[in-house]
Amino acid sequence: MTECEIVQALRNNEPFKGLPNVRVANLVDQLYTTQRRFDAKFDLQFGDMKVEVYVEVKSTCTPKQVEQIAPWLSQMKAMKNGAAFALLCPTISPQSQELCFKRNVDFIDLAGNVFINIPGKLLLQRVGMKPQREATASYYRNPFSGTSSRILRVLLQKPKPWTLSEIAEELAAETRRVQCPGTPFGVSLSLTSRVLRSLEEELLVIRKPTAFDPDLAVSEADLKQERSARRRNAILVPEPEKLLNTWAREYKDRYRWYLRRSFKAPNPFGSGLQTVNEGLWGMLRSGCYAFTGAAAASLTAPFIDADPIEFYIAGEIGADKLRPSLSGVGVGPDLRVIYPFDAGVFMYSTRVNGIPVVSDIQAYLDLFARGGRDLKQADYLLQQRIAPMWRSK
Question: Which of 1, 90, 310, 373 has the highest count of CB atoms within 10 angstroms of its CB?
Fold first, then answer.
């Protein structure tokens, strides 16, 4: 939406629909004050009360944008008592709303989410309203979906400063290490750049800027300085657990789609994971598979009941070939065969006592998505396996 369209929606009282006796009046756009230009100003009439609201219009309101503008809005609010200074956006995500609450930043979005706080005079708050359409920036790429999530796996598995080229090299190296037929992990540099930019806007990664200008490099020393500057400008994950938990909440919705591409089958091999693996290997010598969820966690965490035994298999054809062989009377926990939407689930997979298992990161995601008793198993995996890995690196 353009700025004019957003302001017109405000003029039509769209953000306050459903709130009795609350309406917009006397709206003026392109308002200039002694401090700076505001995009609009209006009187918010709330019953018999009327307050002035100055608004800064943005087509998107990411957490990073909120962080950048919060000090200025707070300063303006302190200078003019009794008035509100609010962000106005088509939609404001729950993450941005939470940051607004922490920074005491007033906000309004066209979905109907509102926070106007004038101490001693007015508190108007409504959240949880869903937008009719999502407003995303042109650079935005959902970092939690499909091939984009492979970049997250690199950042979380090996938390260190990363550049674009280093991430590309790591994905290529992981493709060679796993050697899963038909499952290359590489992605384009442009996709990597957009994913990192999106994560940066959500304050899930940071980069340390440098004042060095490579265009002015005239000597070998300057070029070395440029390479050093690029390293200082590398991407870092300041809070790996926050990034993983954000991904896990997003992944939970996608997990249901994963289950649609899966099937349950009786287990003709036995109750032990070693026995099941031997049976599967006999059927899939040329295939690529890895146990996940409780089955994977049971090899490193005590008292975990793997029922059903879940495993990913690469290639839909392989899953179709396996289905007829898994029939008859089961002699152990049921098997769940999952054909993943993205081959990234096999990244950083390993073998424990010869048994192929997904990474602890992937096992955590699947346990979290299943919920119930598996949440405790996910938390154990996070605290005892994943968090120590982050600290050691």
Answer: 310
Residue 19 falls inside a structural domain:
yes
Confirm whether 136 is domain-assigned.
no
Whole-structure pTM value: 0.80
> Could you tell me the pLDDT band of residue 84, with boundaries at 50, 70 and 90?
very high
Q: Domain for residue 82, yes or no?
A: yes
- The candidate with the shortest Cα–Cα distance to 298, out of 230, 366, 369, is 366
| In-domain check, residue 272 | yes
Rounded to 10 degrees, the C-alpha dihedral 237/240/246/251 comes to 110
pLDDT digits (tens, 9 = 90+) for 206-238: 986 544 444 444 455 544 544 544 555 799 999
Distance CA 66, CA 72 (A): 10
Domain that holds residue 24: 3-126
Cis ω on the peptide bond leading into residue 308 (within 30° of 0)?
yes
Structure tokens at 151: 């970049």
